[in-house]
Design goal:
Elements: H1 6-19, H2 34-51, H3 72-75, H4 88-102, H5 113-147, H6 154-180, H7 185-203, H8 215-223, H9 241-258, E1 261-268, E2 275-281, H10 288-311, H11 318-323, H12 341-345, H13 351-356, H14 358-382, H15 387-396, E3 399-400, H16 408-415, H17 419-439, H18 446-471, H19 473-478
Antiparallel strand pairs: 1-2, 1-3
Length: about 475
């Protein structure tokens, strides 16, 4: 956006006028203690968990398909509850605005408080639009057929619940981020959802085909009759000791990899004698490329399910069979492709399936690693992470690299030694870790573990900053944060 044209001035006025009617959480009027922040963070988390257990009013039966099956981990969503859409609409709107910002389609000066406020208001407006669109489309297409015969108006009640609950989640995230809580509300909800899945796999006493679903209750129940070794490998996607061991190993690998970085020395031009390092992480692009890749696959499977259910429910069309096939006899909403291109694009999610069809496993690993790497390259350019942007950010922070002129071109040349190669390495590493973890059936899925560990590390760093701000306000001011 440029502040020089009439149309752009008009757009600014429209955004400001509309934002006056958008619900928002005020910033705290005084400094919030860390203990109080934990309390508000806990309240937001508790509310999310409760909403994830409240079924949608007016829905009497589950849909034939779970169309968000492959996206529920990254969207912190629970089927059939107020958290049906999870944080999906909020993440979608946020990524859209970030792409517009990173690609310079939005011309704003983010050093200017008014422009930053304008961008925040625009993001919230776009978020509400996406929430309304997704709530309306998803509610009418998925739950409309289930409510039309019994109560024609029930679908509007369902849509209102989907939209209303998503707006509540948006406000809870805003509350946490505006200083009432710690970190990000969205990250907190994702981490909680993944942790729930892992705890369910470990401790659930719900009966399955061969005993309790949870691996620990299964071991205890089978130890009495001398068959505890049955827990090492279990059929299908049931939790096993093998999967538990792999989950622990993957978490340790991720924690280790998260700590690997290249340090570029920097000195302050504002405070003489103040030196530090600018760390460029091995996982430079973070987990955003994995989220984008998972969202792409989830949407592909979603479209495949829609096409199959409407045009090829008996797998008799050669053209549609080439795209995707499902088992017509399978019951419930959790259906995975059994043939077609989408079959090779989705994870086997079972060691048994890997042995039965190693070609599918190999194709999936190669495919996911490739698209994660491609998204890594794209995100660096569109997300404002390129060497040019990093150099500009360093100079804007009043620091420079010793031995290099204080000019963008000079610093950019230095950063180009690391960022392009680390971008590729980051994509390959993330893709391999995610895909291999998926096919080996780790608890919470490979993508889920990547997200959880990344969020936990981020929360640890946030808590360290909070401690610095609280106990050493002078140092916090030097680092550019308000005491």
């Amino acid at each position: 956006m440029s502040s020089t044209t009439t149309s752009e001035h008009g757009l600014r006025r429209v955004i400001k006028a509309v934002s006056a009617y958008v619900p928002q959480v005020p910033k705290p009027k005084k400094k919030i203690s860390l203990t109080e922040k934990f309390v508000w963070t806990g309240i937001a988390l508790f509310a999310y968990l409760i909403m994830g257990q409240i079924p949608l009013y007016g829905v009497t039966e589950a849909p034939k398909f779970d169309f968000l099956q492959f996206a529920r981990v990254i969207f912190a969503a629970q089927q059939g509850t107020l958290m049906e859409l999870g944080i999906g609409p909020i993440v979608t709107a946020g990524l859209l605005m970030q792409l517009l910002k990173g690609s310079d389609l939005i011309k704003l000066d983010f050093k200017n408080p008014d422009d930053r406020s304008l961008f925040t208001s625009a993001t919230k407006i776009v978020t509400i639009i996406v929430i309304s669109a997704e709530g309306g489309l998803y509610g009418s297409s998925v739950y409309g057929p289930l409510t039309a015969d019994e109560a024609p108006l029930a679908i509007y009640v369902v849509i209102a619940q989907l939209i209303g609950s998503s707006i509540i989640v948006m406000l809870m995230d805003e509350m946490v981020q505006k200083g009432w809580g710690v970190g990000s509300g969205l990250s907190l909800f994702i981490m909680a959802g993944i942790a729930q899945t892992i705890l369910w796999s470990v401790f659930s006493v719900v009966p399955g085909n061969d005993g309790p679903v949870g691996i620990l209750p299964f071991v205890i129940s089978h130890s009495a009759d001398g068959h505890a070794d049955d827990a090492i490998f279990r059929t299908g996607q049931l939790p096993s000791l093998f999967g538990l061991g792999l989950t622990v190993i993957v978490i340790l690998i991720l924690v280790y990899v998260e700590g690997i970085h290249v340090d570029v020395p920097i000195v302050s031009t504002k405070y003489r004698g103040f030196t530090a390092v600018y760390p460029i992480k091995l996982l430079y692009t973070s987990v955003i490329p994995v989220i984008l890749s998972s969202a792409l696959l989830a949407n592909a499977v979603f479209m495949g399910q829609m096409l199959w259910a409407n045009y090829n429910p008996e797998n008799k069309s050669p053209i549609f069979n080439w795209i995707v096939q499902f088992d017509p006899k399978s019951q419930g909403g959790q259906r995975s492709p059994t043939g077609g291109i989408l079959y090779y694009m989705t994870s086997p999610r079972s060691f048994d399936h890997v042995i039965q069809d190693p070609v599918r496993a190999a194709v999936y690993v190669i495919f996911l690693t490739t698209i994660v790497t491609v998204f890594s390259r794209l995100w660096v350019e569109l997300g404002g992470l390129s060497a040019k942007n990093a150099a500009k950010n360093l100079l804007d922070a009043d620091v420079q690299v010793p031995g290099f002129r204080r000019a963008e071109g000079s610093v950019e040349t230095l950063l180009n030694r690391y960022i392009p190669s680390l971008t590729i390495i980051s994509g390959i590493t993330l893709g391999l870790l995610s895909s291999l973890s998926d096919i080996l059936n780790v608890f919470g899925s490979g993508t889920g573990l990547l997200l959880m560990v990344n969020i936990m590390v981020s929360y640890y760093q946030t808590l360290v900053k909070e401690q610095v701000d609280m106990h050493m306000p002078g140092l916090a001011a030097m680092l550019g944060r308000k005491p």
